[in-house]
């Protein structure tokens, strides 16, 4: 299957995982994958095998570090609500975007990253060609209907040699995957519950975003989308 960008160029082809070392997730060794850039992959349904464990862990994280609506350095409210787990958590306020080792709401360290989270992130990264990925930060974004994420680069991390692993749960979303300049044409692709996107290497600083979430109801998560973004931040 061939997919095209907004200007009609062929940009990636459908393929399947073969011969990958999938360790904990070997049940998905034949999962459909889409190459969306030179070093970028969409892994369809990659997280589904561990859906129950992921959702249970997510519930514990949110109970310990509640979702909150952050503001941008310019003083605008973000449309998503966020929290984090891992050694470092992503923070946005009038001081800027950054990582901190403590939750600014509670003053306590962020919840530890659950094993199922770190295992999924490492296995997805390995399947996309990035071995030995050990994330130290997981940003949890909650999208209600109408919430969105403008085109941006992930560049608050210290080491750009490590990939980004993004896990979609709940309601579907239209993901925008642009180029290294904000003005570059962006691919549009629908992400479903359990899909994982991995990008790194020469694609590490590509712009990306999410169009407004459409109203709906997911059987496991109701009227919301949850995105888990794994990074090596420190």
What is the overall silhouette?
globular
Q: Which architecture would the CATH scheme give at its second level?
A: Sandwich
Q: Overall mean pLDDT score? A: 89
Give the tally of structural domains.
Answer: 1
Distinct helical segment count? 2
Structural class, by secondary structure, is mainly beta
Radius of gyration: 17 Å
Based on DSSP secondary structure assignment, what is the total number of beta strands? 15
Strand order of the largest sheet: 1-2-3-4-13-10-15-8-5
- The proportion of residues in beta strands is 25-35%
The ordered string of helix (H) and strand (E) elements is: EEEEHEEEHEEEEEEEE
The biggest sheet, with number of strands, parallel, antiparallel or mixed sense and barrel status, is: 9 strands, antiparallel
CATH class: Mainly Beta
Could you explain how this protein is built, in words?
There is one protein chain. The chain is mainly β. The protein has a single domain, classed as Sandwich (Jelly Rolls), CATH 2.60.120.590. Helices cover 12% and strands 33% of the residues. The chain contains 2 helices and 15 strands. The strands form 3 sheets. A 9-stranded antiparallel sheet has the order 1-2-3-4-13-10-15-8-5, covered by helices on one side. A 4-stranded antiparallel sheet has the order 9-14-11-12, with no helix packed on it. Strands 6-7 form a two-stranded antiparallel sheet. A hairpin with a 2-residue loop joins strand 6 and strand 7. The longest helix is centred in the N-terminal third of the chain and has 14 residues. The chain is globular and about 40 Å long. It starts with a strand and ends with a strand. The relative contact order is 0.20. The N terminus is likely disordered.
